[in-house]
Structure formats: C-alpha cells, structure tokens
Amino acid sequence: MKRQAVRKPRARLRLPRLVFAVLCVVLVAGCANVPLESQPVVVSGERQGQGSGDVVPEPKPDSDPLTLVRDFVGATLKPGQNNAAARAYLDEQGRANWRPSRSLTIIQDTFGTVYDPSPQPDPNTLVVNVRGIDVGTLDQNSAFVPDYSPAALKVKVRKQANGQWRIVDPPPDLYATESDFSENYTAVPVNFYSEQSATFVPDRRYVVAKPQSGLPSRVMYLLVNGPSTSLAGSVKNLLGEPVEIDTNVKSLDDGTLLVPLTGLSGVADDIRNLIAAQIVLTLQYVTSARIRILADGAPLVANHPDWRSNELPAYGASLSPSLELKGLMTVDGRVRSLGDGAPVGGPAGNGGYDVVNAAQSIDGKRLAVVDRDGPKVRLRIGDLGHDLPPAGLGGTTLSRPTWRPGTGEVWTVVDQVSVARMVMSPTNQWTPLQVNATDLTQQGDVTELRFSRDGARVAAVVNGLLWVASVVGAGDSVALREPRLLQPHDLQNVVDVDWLTQDTLVAVTKSTSQPVIRVTVDGQRMDAFNSSNLTPQVHGVTAAPGRPIVVADASGLWTASVLGEVWRPHDHSMKDADPFYPG
C-alpha cells in the first residue's frame, strides 16, 4: 500500500506538547497508536481503557494460527495502554519490543486469513496472510488518506513451548477494520484560516471518541500542531510557532472549558480575534460549553474571555450565494433562470450565443459561458444580461467554468488536459494564466472542475473517477497539489460533481442503482441518495449550503435536500437542462 508523505513534527516542543504526545500514545487518540513506552506526564482523566494494573485476557486457548491473526486484528482498537489487547497475541519477546508506527491502516470488514504458500524451514513457524482490501490510512496527522488496494499484511506465528500459537516479528503498522474504526473514532472538522478567501477551512481529522470528556483536549492539540498534509499549503495555522498550549485544556468547576495559550506576546488584535474564531469553530463540534481562551494568563481578546460560536462574525458569508439568487440552467444553447424558467437578458439568453455550459459569479453580477465557435468552443465573460466579450481562451472542449472564491478568477479545463485561470488585468482585460495542475492531470482526462466554497480545494472528475486536490499559491504561481482519489471502487463513472458543504461533495454517476452520491472530502464515508423518480442517465448536479440539491436526468430537473428523500420535480424543469448555483 502506498503511503502518503507526512510532515515532520515540530522540533521545538514545550512540556504541554509532550503531554499531547503522551495522549496520542496512551489514548490511541488522533495519532492512532500506542507505543510501548508511555511518559510519566499524563493529562488527568484522559487515560483510555485499562489502567496500568488491569489484567489483559490471553487469547482463546488452542487458537489456530488463522483465528489468532483474525483476533489480533480485532483487538487493535480495544482500549488499553500500549495496545495491551493486541500485544497479548504476541510472544514474550514481541510483547516487550513491539513499537508499531503511529499510523493505522483500515481494512474492509470482510477479510480472510490464509496460510502463506511459501514453505517454512521450521514446522512450528507459519506465515499467515491477511486477505482483504485496504480502504485508507489514518496518518500521523490523524487525517484519513484514502486508498483501495489489496491488504499487504503478513504475520509470522510460532508455536510456543506451552503448545499455544503466538505472533512473532509483529507487523510495524496497526490494522483495524472499518467497523472498529467507526466505533472508536469520531470525525472533527479542525479549522484553519485561508488568507485568500478570508474564511476558515475545515480539515477533517479523526480522534478517539471516548472518553468524551477528553475530546476538547485531544482536538486542541491537533489544532495547534497544524493542518494535515492535504491542506498544508492552502491554509495558515494561526496557532503556529511560537504559540503553545500552556497547561492542560480542562473543564472548570462552573462548566467552562479552559484553553490556556502562551507565546502570543505582541500579536495584533485582529489576529487574536481570528485565533479565537479558529478555536471556537473547531471545538464547537466536541463541546457545548463556554470556551475561555487565555494568553499568558490573560484573556486572548481583551474584555472577551469567554466565547460561544454564536458570538463569532459570519466568516465566509460573502462566499455563499445570496438566497435571492435562485441559480441558472443551460437549455438548448441558452441560459435560463432556475427561479422562473425565463431566459436571462442579453445574447446568453436570447440565442445570440450557442451556449454549451456556463457559470454565474458568486455575487450574481457576472456570467462566464462557453459557446460554440465553429468546430471549437470559446470562453466569454461579462456582466449578466449584457454582451459577453470573448476572453481569449478556446479549444476543442472547455469544462464548465468555476469561479475562484475571493478572487474573481474563472477557471476551466482546456481539452481535458490543462487547467487555465482567467485573471482580470489592470486594463480590465481577461488574461489566461496556466495552473500547475500536473499532479492532477497526469491521472487522466479532466472533464469537470469545481472550487469549494472556501477556495482551498477543487473537486475534479478524472476518467470518470472523483478526485480532490488542494489549491496552493497566489498571484502568478498557483498549483493543484495533493490530489486524493475518493472511493475508487464504489464511485465510478462519475459525470458531474458539486460541493454540498465545505467538506462534503455530491456526485452524479451513470449508475442506475446509485446515481447520486454524497461523499466526504477525504473519501472516508460515502452515502447514496434515494434513486426513486430519477430516470437514467443523471448527467448534472448543483449544490450549495442551505440550498436544495438539483440534479438533471433524462427527463428534466429534480430536487431533494437530505438522504432518503424522494426526488421531487423542479418547479421549472426542462428536458436537457443543466443546473448551476452561483460559484
């Protein structure tokens, strides 16, 4: 299984960071693993499972090697210090020396154990192969890295002097099933700041769910240690060096959650307010308490020691379309309103252009359309309802444009092989600039590209598969990095995609049984919408926070808002329409 590179941890760690390191190993927390040695400094009340004096039960007597290995995998996430439950399946030397890595490989629930066909020189030593599918890895950042490949776990077992089989030379990584992972871990959107779009971006991380009282502490240490690899170049960690957690994150007698920081001397007031927002937006998922944020013993923000999420400004409000903007659709070469079905003003709506696809700016004032230009197509950008001048970009194909949040840029994929960004020059001329998208385009033909509402990521359809990549850089140098393939086995023949929330996507496929799919941005979870009333093939989708999802099938447009809901006909459904919300 391929492993994604992870960032090296910070070299400078004060005592509270050491506490975090111990939390990771003692709790099997966000770091996903427990080394053999645990340090003597532990956050009070945060120890999971068995105490140091608890007796770990031995494996079932007379277990055969195949059963022994299956039970070993099943014991990985059982509570206890130093992976005590799993360590019980090792021989004496293994119990003393096993130091598995701080990553966790997650395999499908259905897996088998078979004897390795290679002959062993010792009849009392056997090798057992775990046959199954790796679905992903929980890396050292506590982020899920998707995968779909055969499990590569080989386990050597040896008959002991007492006649019992035990594992020798235990594997360097921990393995657990999807069900065990879901039962023991909870997803938390850890928020980081995007200077490009002046909003916060959720970075999905996974922490041990119990004890629940320790969740805020575990999450805060993930926040301070920075974004995961997939977002490292796209966002800023306002709590980076020299900021540290001063003492333990804990609940006070009055129920207030105390978050004590240090290293913020000289930090400007505007940054302090952003830091408070970053902390509150993250911790709101794991506590309902007031949050008291201190910096070197004093309130982080003067005269505002305690916080709740409803006290924060509406960061990113300008990045979501106004509810007054009902959305648009392209039908038979024209752009029409989703609100009343009427054509928009100007050539885009009256047939002056033969429109192939289009995108409306987030504020609703501009329109980018791809229209036919003889045997090819070209991009036009201008004010909605007016003439749209050619933007100087064309090709055999251009994907539906997407507006980059916070910039006014328009991006599209040219001939399925290169990503172009259109930037307004000081002379009010659109200038095409290239995007370094090699990491993505080398995966295959890119047919769709959509910006997330915060602008930190793009979703792309590549050879019918769904990918997500981070957007790194500004000015003349912008790149798409860290592309991740989401659910490649179950999510195939994708034809369109849009962002339901900042960290959730809706994709439509050629499938007749599961044509509309919701999937998390890291691919860890996928759910199918009800397919009732839809007529294959579904070919288009648009979504936005707080809006109904609109899909286009062979008969017209349909709407739904939640999983399980039966699709309802859109009020202004038209055959062969392709819907799109602003953005």
UniProtKB/TrEMBL annotation:
Statement: the UniProt record of this protein carries the keyword Lipoprotein: yes
Keyword Lipoprotein (UniProt): yes
Superkingdom of this protein's organism: Bacteria
InterPro entries according to UniProt: GerMN, LpqB_C, LpqB_N
Residue ranges annotated for the GerMN domain, each copy included: 216-304
Protein species of origin: Amycolatopsis camponoti
Assigned keywords, A-Z: Lipoprotein
Protein name, as recorded: Lipoprotein LpqB
